[in-house]
Design the sequence.
């Protein structure tokens, strides 16, 4: 895509953002509901586009240029299309995040301060081959009053084009500003957009650590980074093994290509001889390739199960296929240290019936989501009740974990006075500030 074309798209998005930020919640909700309906009405068209992507991706798989996990992420079926439609409508039903007054005080008589949520403006989102990422991101951006520029993976080119056309048409029919949603294609578009810090307000990349790091190092635009998902489950010596078995199978097998699937299993040595063979048999039956530390390999060998030895690189590798490294640890402290050392600060879980251990794990593991007796697969904006997510952030500034609507607004301070000047509040006869809490209706002051 040529630079002049990209510039025009960004320019239109910027112009639209000034209008979109003032759109009434009802208009945004109507646009999202129209989009939700259109997704279902145009299911056949969407499926046809997706089949083209699958066919092209299959050829790349045969050449060894992509992995099977990419095709798994790429596929659309009736259930996924229904889920996309429900996701969009669920965003419409969420509370509008724009215009929320977070803080209000009377500084002095006639001088009142309000802290209010506002949209960022223009968001540039780069995402992987999952087609459902496009409507997720677009819906959240519309609801939060932001124009959005979308750049999907080349593997989902046809699916993304069709989804974009459906959303663009629905948003326009509902009266949203023209240009508030844009689609760009080609790798050169990323390079061009990362230089447009005077027009783009936030970049949201979804991908590997290396990809996110590349984005951060090549732009002056703020980046809301989505790190890789090296997620752990630690099975404690006081775990209910029936619970642990169900949770571990779900976390690794239910959707192995997801960023929130379990990538490493840690097992306390006191139950390793019982639990590891039990789980491994179940996982191997489901097609999982086990890679073990020396202790794990020995335990499974005595049980008549031969597995690969795990190397140092396996503990910080994001396996998006049915591969699972297993490590035996000596204590809860060792498990916590391993996770904080090798993890990606995404999602980690402990399986135990000891509440003190659970509390220690939750307080000590430095991750965006930390679970007790639950599958890591729950780490998701939709499941958290956020409607959807633009990604999962492992940053500690602004937004962390699944990023929904609240992560797509920033704040501005509004000060309403009546001829007040700072000089009256400094010096020998300075007036004191009152700093009293007041009601939060700043607009009433301007009537």
Sequence:
């Amino acid at each position: 895509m040529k630079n002049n074309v990209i510039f025009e798209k960004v320019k239109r998005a910027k112009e639209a953002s000034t209008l979109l930020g003032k759109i009434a919640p009802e208009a945004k909700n109507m646009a999202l509901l129209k989009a939700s309906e259109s997704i279902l009405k145009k299911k056949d068209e969407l499926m046809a586009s997706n089949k083209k992507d699958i066919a092209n991706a299959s050829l790349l798989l045969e050449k060894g240029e992509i992995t099977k996990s990419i095709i798994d992420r790429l596929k659309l079926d009736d259930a996924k299309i229904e889920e996309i439609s429900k996701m969009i409508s669920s965003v419409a039903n969420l509370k509008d995040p724009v215009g929320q007054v977070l803080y209000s005080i009377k500084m002095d008589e006639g001088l009142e301060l309000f802290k209010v949520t506002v949209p960022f403006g223009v968001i540039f989102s780069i995402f992987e081959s999952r087609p459902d990422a496009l409507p997720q991101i677009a819906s959240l951006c519309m609801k939060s009053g932001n124009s959005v520029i979308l750049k999907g993976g080349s593997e989902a080119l046809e699916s993304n084009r069709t989804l974009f056309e459906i959303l663009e048409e629905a948003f326009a029919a509902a009266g949203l500003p023209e240009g508030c949603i844009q689609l760009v294609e080609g790798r050169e578009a990323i390079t061009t957009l990362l230089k447009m810090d005077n027009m783009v307000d936030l970049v949201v990349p979804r991908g590997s650590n290396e990809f996110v790091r590349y984005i951060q190092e090549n732009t002056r635009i703020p980046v809301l980074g989505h790190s890789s998902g090296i997620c752990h489950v630690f099975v404690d010596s006081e775990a209910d093994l029936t619970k642990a078995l169900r949770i571990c199978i779900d976390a690794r097998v239910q959707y192995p290509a997801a960023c929130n699937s379990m990538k490493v299993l840690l097992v306390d040595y006191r139950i390793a001889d019982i639990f590891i063979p039990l789980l491994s048999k179940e996982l191997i039956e489901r097609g999982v390739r086990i890679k073990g530390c020396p202790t794990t390999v020995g335990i499974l060998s005595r049980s008549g199960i031969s597995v690969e030895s795990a190397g140092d690189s396996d503990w910080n590798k994001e396996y998006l296929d049915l591969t699972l490294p297993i490590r035996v640890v000596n204590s809860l402290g060792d498990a916590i240290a391993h996770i904080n050392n090798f993890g990606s600060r995404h999602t980690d879980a402990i399986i135990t019936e000891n509440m003190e251990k659970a509390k220690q794990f939750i307080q000590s593991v430095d991750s965006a989501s930390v679970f007790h007796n639950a599958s890591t697969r729950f780490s998701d904006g939709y499941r958290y009740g956020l409607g959807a997510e633009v990604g999962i952030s492992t940053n500690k500034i602004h937004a962390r974990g699944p990023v929904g609507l609240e992560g797509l607004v920033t704040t501005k301070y509004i000060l309403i006075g009546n001829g007040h000047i700072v000089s009256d509040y400094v010096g020998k006869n300075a007036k004191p500030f009152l700093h009293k809490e007041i009601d939060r209706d700043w607009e009433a002051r301007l009537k």
Q: What stands out?
A: The CA atoms of residues 79 and 85 lie 10 Å apart. The chain is about 40% helix and 20% strand. The chain has a mean pLDDT of 94. The radius of gyration is 25 Å.
